[in-house]
Specification:
By secondary structure, this protein is α/β, with parallel strands linked by helices. It is 63% helix and 8% strand. The protein has a six-stranded mixed beta sheet.
């Protein structure tokens, strides 16, 4: 656990010199320390840096809750210390032993190539590129990292520079998703094609809220919940829309079978995951099923490999691409049937893996 007191001191180069993702390094470090759990930040700044803080930084950090900013040196025996021009990623705080060193009660970031005090323009540019690369490769699969994020990151850089709040991006993306579903449901080929393209656009924009949050250190549980709920709502609405197209284009028997497989398959999946959570996991997060079960199954088990592959096919970066392609050919009803088959296979694989491995696992005592 990091100390609740922290100190930011001036370096040889003015704190106003560089702006990373629309923020000075001084502001960024204040936000990082707050996210890491600091309750009181002491600013041991020279006169020019203090004037910069008062004129350009204070108004942006004043609304931050749960933190007190104090002028002067830290007088506590234990505290975290860094310079105003220190470059460090938030992920460093999750591994204090590897990223920080302690001397006489003072915790300081370890100086190395990927985290140190910025020295000159070339150094700043290199660290900025490194931060962007970490954001690009930090989430999503290969398609998201190599296609979607090549588009979303330049957008996020502009949004961060204009201080757009991540939750606003999530809300705009939700409206785009709602419009795409309306177009797909409208009936015509052109409307469905436009809706499909918009679904793919939503997949790209969907990355911007998280990227801006990482760039500007504006993480929040509410923002994460809002993003997750909006994504799930749009996914369910898309499936319902696709099912309505199945009803229009196929026989009643095909519609009932497709709907039964989708609804029943999802219900069985949730039942297996909840059973695992209650008996074999200390976490109450559904993500624990993948993290603590699917991902640790033997690599030699071909059913486990097939399950991981199917799960990847259902990720937004891929299903949005499939939806776009099917919509371009006015065939979203075909996608619904294909998706139902994929769900059926996924449920069968999960059920077999549960029967094979659950009996040998140690139950958690609650």
């Amino acid at each position: 656990m990091f100390p609740q007191n922290a100190e930011i001191r001036s370096s040889a180069i003015p704190a106003s010199k560089w702006r990373l993702f629309g923020q000075s390094l001084l502001e960024r470090n204040i936000r990082l320390l707050r996210q890491a759990g600091a309750k009181r930040i002491f600013l041991d700044l020279n006169e020019s840096d203090m004037q910069f803080f008062e004129k350009k930084v204070r108004r942006h950090v004043a609304p931050l809750s749960g933190i007190e900013i104090v002028t002067g040196r830290c007088s506590h025996s234990e505290y975290l210390s860094m310079t105003a021009n220190q470059f460090i990623l938030f992920a460093a705080f999750s591994d204090p032993d590897g990223n920080f060193t302690t001397k006489d009660g003072i915790l300081e970031p370890v100086a190395r190539d990927d985290q140190h005090e910025v020295r000159d323009d070339a150094d700043f540019i290199a660290l900025r590129k490194y931060a962007i690369e970490v954001i690009r490769t930090g989430s999503g699969g290969k398609i998201a990292q190599n296609i979607n994020k090549r588009i979303s990151i330049p957008m996020s850089l502009v949004l961060a520079r204009f201080r757009v709040i991540p939750n606003v991006i999530t809300f705009v993306n939700f409206l785009m998703g709602a419009l795409s579903i309306y177009l797909i449901a409208a009936g015509g080929h052109m409307e469905q094609a436009a809706g499909g393209i918009l679904v793919q656009a939503c997949s790209v924009v969907d990355g911007c809220d998280g990227e801006v949050a990482r760039m500007t250190t504006r993480f929040s549980k509410l923002g994460g919940l809002f993003d997750t709920v909006s994504d799930q709502m749009l996914a369910v609405a898309l499936i319902i829309t696709a099912l309505s197209k199945v009803f229009i284009n196929y026989s009643t028997a095909v519609f009932i079978l497709t709907m039964t497989v989708l609804v029943g398959g999802v219900a069985v999946m949730f039942a297996i995951i909840i059973y695992f959570m209650r008996r074999y996991s200390e976490s109450m997060s559904m993500a624990s099923f993948n993290r603590e079960f699917i991902d640790v199954l033997p690599q030699t088990d071909y059913l486990a490999r097939a399950t991981r592959y199917l799960q990847y096919l259902t990720r937004k970066e891929l299903y949005s691409m499939f939806v776009c392609v099917f919509c371009l050919f006015n065939a979203i009803h075909v996608y619904a049937v294909v998706f139902a088959v994929k769900v059926a296979v996924g449920v069968l694989l999960m059920f077999v893996l549960a029967l094979r491995y659950f009996p040998g696992m140690k139950r958690v005592q609650r």
